[in-house]
Amino acid sequence: MNKPALVCSVLLCVVCGCKPSGPATYQVNGIVTYQGEPLPLGMVMFVAKDGPPSKPATIDGQGRYQLETVAGEHAVAVVAMPPRPGGRPDPTVEGGIDYTGVPEVKSLIPVKYNRHHTSDITIHVEAKRDNQIDIRLQ
User: Fold this and answer.
1) 84-113 as b/e, with b when 16 or more CB fall inside 10 Å?
2) How many helices and strands in the chain, by DSSP H and E?
3) Is the per-residue pLDDT at 76 higher than 90?
4) For residue range 18-62, what is the model confidence (pLDDT) as tens digits?
5) What element of type H or E holds 88?
6) Closest Cα partner for 107 from 135, 79, 86, 77?
7) Mind giving me the DSSP string for 19-65?
8) Total-model pTM
9) What percent of the chain has pLDDT over 90?
10) Which pLDDT does position 65 carry in this prediction?
């Protein structure tokens, strides 16, 4: 591209405003609780009924999460699997770590919450700047 054409392209983008392609997304934040207590770790993901799924969001030590997703109805997935301690590096096994002799870790929540189609959790994201949506697991 010649220099005048490049300058025109940049100016057009600045004047008209360049927006990323794809549907509009809205911020969602909240607290994930299990049996009334904040979940101390994990990931949460919203899967839109009509649109793309959100990127997974990390749940912090106080149960808080924050993500961006499209407006509308969503099924929710929550995974709360503590890290597996121990293991030794071994490039010959899948994942690169050998956990032979290391006990399995147990999910902090029932495994039905790990998949959006089995969690039985649905939420509605409004087309507004901030959505406060707390997720209560039993």
Assistant:
1) eeeeeeeeeeeeeebbeeeeeeeebbeeeb
2) 1, 11
3) yes
4) 555 788 999 999 999 999 999 999 999 999 998 788 999 999 999
5) strand 88-89
6) 79
7) --SS---EEEEEEEEETTEE--SEEEEEEETTSPPPPPEEE-TTSEE
8) 0.75
9) 62
10) 98
Tell me the β-bridge partners of 47: 75
Which tokens go with 73?
């109805």
DSSP state at residue 6: H
pLDDT band per the 50, 70, 90 thresholds, residue 133: very high
DSSP-derived secondary structure letter, 103? P
> Cα dihedral angle (118, 120, 126, 129), rounded to 10 degrees?
-70
The letter for the amino acid at 91 is P
Give the tokens for residue 97: 């770590």
d(CA 75, CA 92): 38
